[in-house]
Amino acid sequence: MKRQIIRNRKMRFGVLAVTLTVLVIAVTVLANAVFATLAKRYSWYSNLNETPTYDVTEDCFDFLGALFEKYPEGDIELIFCEKAEALTDDVTQKYVYDTAIAIEERYPDRVKVTCHDIWTNPNAVRAYSESVDPVTGEVSTTLIKSSSLIVVSEGFHRVYSIEDFFVFEDGNLDNVWAYNGEKRIASGIMRALNPEAPVASLTNNHGEVYYDYELLYLLDDAGYALAYIDLYRDPIPANCNLIISYNPNSDLVADDVSEKSELDILSEFLAKDGNSFLLLVENGTPKLPNFESFLEEWGVSMQYHTDSSNGKSYRYMVQDASQSLTSDGYTIYGEPATAGKAAEMLAGVDRRVIFKNATGMGAASGFVSNGDGSYTKGDRTLYSLYNSADTALSWANGSPVSGESVMLMTLTEQTIGDATSSVGVIASVKFSSEEFLQSAVFGNTDASLRLLSLFGREDLPEGLTIKPFSSQDISIITTAQMLSWTLSLTLIPALTVTAVGLIVLVRRRNA
């Protein structure tokens, strides 16, 4: 009889629990339906995704303040081609206008913001539609739109389109993801204060299929005028102090076909004070004997493994399974120099840098270690700015061949009397790609600008980063961190449930 009463009581409790659950769900669904209907009818909405605002940073103000102190002469006018009311009403243009106004308010004696309505008065800005190329001297015409911004100083002007102040994913203008107005306006002011821009010449006669546009934007922000050059046939522009070769796939000419080989041309260029050469290669770059013999003279030895079975040499492919952003281990963090002058060169560059599809480099024969990561031979000193981590492994022809750390970014300085010139090598072409230069998380842009400063370029907008419209923090998690989080999120709940179950089981047995 007692057992029957207990069974009936359990049944009643079960029925009651099910009934209450169904009622709660039904009431919740009904309440949501009623509230949704009323919200739609009476517009009960609140915008939880307000348009973000981006104040001008103190880093930007400090940069501009230093410029105005260095160049005490010359005022800047920032000309918008629309009425102020229209600019503030347009979400996109308001970002740029607010940045310009903030700069004017901080430096009212040097910066003036002007608004013209070109719909009713197109002649107000017509004079700025033509510009002269600083390298070729050719006159070009720019279409000025109502969304344009014109940076003007005495004897200088430059027209920016609205797209210049934003960052777009994969170049798709319909997919904007970050604001870049602070750095772009600051760079424009820098150029206006010192319009005599040096030239960066980009070689185009060695199979350089594609210069990533983001690298070109970075050079432009750094104040360079850009020129493409066939090193074998074209004269180097008079004001050029930097030559860049981006993933060459054919070698330097070093024969007797012409009076001078390209090796001689580069050597003569680097014999002049303030000139620099930058080379970007990767694990897929073919072997280039003349390029590499030239680099060895400047202290850099590209790393190869010779297969004893066939006698062929294969370029290193650097992998780090634990310090990578990708599962294959080939998108790795570079470890910055921590000692000597190389560490001093990177002072202030705090964000991690990424080397994708990297090859390896080492010190060339004859360069003697100074014990601090630098190597010297005669009047040339090699500095290893970034290396692979101790956990990295180098592969060649499908097999692991070395567990030693290799150089990923180097700078070699030549000093003869008062004349200094430089050669830089980056062992990853993707280092200077849109994927990483556009990042607000990684320090590839910072490291690139620092390298340009070591080449002697002044007034660089270092530290001025893009402003994403959403958080990008998740992109910095490495494969090792992912594994750690996965194990934690998998094991901790399971162990907690097991522990609680054991406690309940023991207590019930002892009850």
Quaternary structure annotation: single chain
The percent of residues in helical segments reads 25-40%
Tell me, briefly, the overall form. flat
Number of helices: 12
**Chain-averaged pLDDT:** 86
Give the distance, in angstroms, between the N- and C-terminal Cα atoms.
24 Å
Q: What share of the residues does DSSP label as strand, in percent?
A: 15-25%
- Uncertain spans: 40-49
From the alpha carbons, calculate the radius of gyration and give it in angstroms: 30 Å
Structural classification:
alpha+beta
Count the beta strands. 27
Largest sheet: 11 strands, mixed
Description:
The chain is α+β, with helices and mostly antiparallel strands and about 500 residues long. It has twelve helices and 27 strands. The strands form seven sheets. Strands 9, 10, 11, 12, 17, 18, 20, 21, 22, 25 and 26 form an eleven-stranded mixed sheet that branches. It has a four-stranded mixed sheet with strand order 2-1-5-6, covered by helices on one side. Helix 2 runs parallel beside helix 5. The chain starts with a helix and ends with a helix.
Give a concise summary.
With 511 residues, the protein is α+β, with helices and mostly antiparallel strands. It has twelve helices and 27 strands.
